[in-house]
């Protein structure tokens, strides 16, 4: 609609690849894409000597966009095959994901997951970040 009217869009909040491709000369991004962010994270980790990392992502457009960038840059840096664990966003049950990450003993874990979100009635944890931390801590006890 904006393109048809010739109206520029300045500084959209999203880092989604979907609003970057195909290139629209009327959209002016001021923030990095999620894939560019992943690239900077992996570049930093690689320069610090990290060779084994993992990613925890939510299984939706946002999480898969971050995952795509993460995998692209892990490959570009020729790092060890990462552990990949996902969250289906329908529950706070992330124990299987935390177990997979802990089993791989990564030196770093990248997260592409939104939070906080409200727990289910039967859950004690107040949100996603707390649920992830509790689940990972349980695996390392």
Topology, element by element:
Elements (H helix, E strand, L loop, with lengths): L1 H4 L3 E2 L16 E2 L5 H14 L5 E6 L2 H16 L6 E5 L7 H10 L3 E5 L15 H12 L2
Parallel strand pairs: 1-2, 3-4, 3-5
Descriptive notes:
This protein is α/β, with parallel strands linked by helices. It has 2 domains: 1-31, no CATH class; 33-139, Response regulator (Rossmann fold, 3-Layer(aba) Sandwich). It has 5 helices and 5 strands, in the order H-E-E-H-E-H-E-H-E-H. The strands form 2 sheets. A 3-stranded parallel sheet has the order 4-3-5, with helices on both faces. Helix 2 packs parallel to helix 3 (61-76) and helix 4 (95-104) crosses helix 5 (128-139). The longest helix is centred in the middle third of the chain and has 16 residues, at 61-76. The radius of gyration is 17 Å and the shape is flat. Residues 133-141 have low confidence and may be disordered.
Provide a short characterization of the protein structure:
The protein has 141 residues and is α/β, with parallel strands linked by helices. 40% of the residues lie in helices and 14% in strands. It contains five helices and five strands, in the order H-E-E-H-E-H-E-H-E-H.
* Most strands sheet: 3 strands, parallel
Quick one: CATH class of the largest domain? Alpha Beta
* Structural class by helix and strand composition: alpha/beta
Q: What is the chains' assembly state?
A: single chain
Number of strands: 5
């Amino acid at each position: 609609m904006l393109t048809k009217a010739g109206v520029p869009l300045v500084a959209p909040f999203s880092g989604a690849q979907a609003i970057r491709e195909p290139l629209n000369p009327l959209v002016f991004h001021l923030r990095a894409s999620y894939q560019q962010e992943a690239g900077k994270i992996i570049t930093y980790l690689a320069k610090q000597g990290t060779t084994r990392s993992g990613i925890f992502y939510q299984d939706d457009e946002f999480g898969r966009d971050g995952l795509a960038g993460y995998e692209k840059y892990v490959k570009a840096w020729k790092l060890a095959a990462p552990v990949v664990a996902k969250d289906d966003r329908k529950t706070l049950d992330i124990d299987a994901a935390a177990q997979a990450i802990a089993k791989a003993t990564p030196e770093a874990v990248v997260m592409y997951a939104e939070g906080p979100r409200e727990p289910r009635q039967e859950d004690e944890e107040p949100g996603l970040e707390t649920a992830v931390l509790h689940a990972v801590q349980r695996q390392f006890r």
